[in-house]
Amino acid sequence: MQNRRLAMSYLVKIVTLGCPKNTVDSEQILGQLFRHGHQPVDDPSKADVIVINTCGFIESAKRESIETILELAQQKIEGKCQYLIVTGCLVQKYADELKAELPEVDLFLGTGDIHLLPQLLASLKPGVRIAQVGDPDNYLFDDEIPLVPGHIKHYAYVKIAEGCNNCCTYCVIPSMRGKYRSRSLESIVHEVSKLTENGVKEAILVAQDITLYGYDKYGKYMLPALLQELVKLKNLQWIRLLYCYPNRLTDELLLTIKEEHKICRYLDIPLQHISDPVLKAMGRPMGKQDTIDLLKKIRKLLPGVTLRSTFIIGFPGESEEDFAQLLAFLEDMQFERAGFFTYSPEPGTKAAGLPLQIPEEVKERRLQQALAVQEKILAAKQAQQVGMIIPVIVDGPSPEYEGLWEGRTQGDAPEIDGVVYIKPAPNLRQGDIINIKITHSQDFALMGEVNDEPGQ
């Protein structure tokens, strides 16, 4: 280890918490460090430097981030690593408090400063602690950062924009990530082309709101134009869209999805609630009836589409009637995928100061009711697919069930939605897109068998 340190070359372990956008940031950090001669490792106990990329969106995410920092700080306390670095949203919001409470951390880095990590790492000295937290608008994805060998999968998250311009009253993201700023269309196409040359079959487009893409840079919504360019890439098989704001799901975008077979019929549309008083208090852009009309239009235009949404339970002022409307909405709309989390009052947000905060026990009761409704819907949706032949992208051997492999349908985003368990056939490879006959569903997962061999 001493030779590596003298040469300013380190073994680096990066731990990523939070959403896929953080995953992209971690890949950028690794690429930057790799370009400067540092090497990634999987085992924290073998790392000279540990980087923790934190999430600070809600209280549970903050707790997970702090627990992870404290756990990995033991590696430094025990002399197994030289430097401990913490970056991400939690640092951007709480740098001073973290520096005061976590003396084991050598470097705190804001979301707009991750491009400075190589030079800051080179300047670190034992016992000297640094907090570098500037304007989050200082950074935007750099498609010239090299890909790290061994870290490229058959799918990749592609961040098309950074920051957020929306004014949801419960959300701290704008203060952590800055204003919305789009990458150029050319840089995104270049990145995805480079990824496909390295074996990526599925590009998952992410941003805080992908439907706003391009408006700041080109004066109009450019997601349809971007998709039209991406579908031309020969080796790209699937394009998945995450985080679509409902009021910007234009007819042009929906028709593009309908006409281009490479674009998964999968839309993640975070709605957060359906009761008009709650939506107004949240600062959301659409009311109940407009939302229902939009979802019906999508279902009509895109038969077989998988709709995913997320909902906040127990927002300040949410009455029993408001919550009943949400449950009825779930029953009526029959979302294929839905996530729920209880409201967390975040310091600095307007919602944290609203009256009629909901007691935690009421939030938890309502959460369990919503989960029960959605579980019944999911079980019924999954059962309807038994006997169907469905295209599936192969993710590899199952970590849970020996002898089985896992794959995903177009309706399943990695690490978010479900999987299909597959009895492997000869020559099956990670990244293959094959037809699977669904034989049965169990515990909200599907099981099936290969209906044709890859390449046939």
UniProtKB/TrEMBL annotation:
Species in which this protein is naturally found: Thermanaerosceptrum fracticalcis
Amino acids binding [4Fe-4S] cluster 1: 19, 55, 89
Domain Radical SAM core: 150-381
UniProt similarity note: Belongs to the methylthiotransferase family. RimO subfamily.
Record keywords: 4Fe-4S, Cytoplasm, Iron, Iron-sulfur, Metal-binding, Ribonucleoprotein, Ribosomal protein, S-adenosyl-L-methionine, Transferase
A Gene Ontology BP annotation from the UniProt entry: tRNA methylthiolation
Pfam family, one: Radical_SAM
InterPro entries from the UniProt entry: Elp3/MiaA/NifB-like_rSAM (IPR006638), Methylthiotransferase (IPR005839), Methylthiotransferase_CS (IPR020612), Methylthiotransferase_N (IPR013848), Methylthiotransferase_N_sf (IPR038135), NA-bd_OB-fold (IPR012340), Ribosomal_uS12_MeSTrfase_RimO (IPR005840), rSAM (IPR007197)
GO CC entries: cytosol; ribosome
Name of the protein in question: Ribosomal protein uS12 methylthiotransferase RimO
Record's subcellular location: Cytoplasm
Predominant location: cytoplasm
Function description: Catalyzes the methylthiolation of an aspartic acid residue of ribosomal protein uS12.
Annotated positions binding [4Fe-4S] cluster 2: 164, 168, 171
PANTHER family, per database record: RIBOSOMAL PROTEIN S12 METHYLTHIOTRANSFERASE RIMO, RIBOSOMAL PROTEIN US12 METHYLTHIOTRANSFERASE RIMO
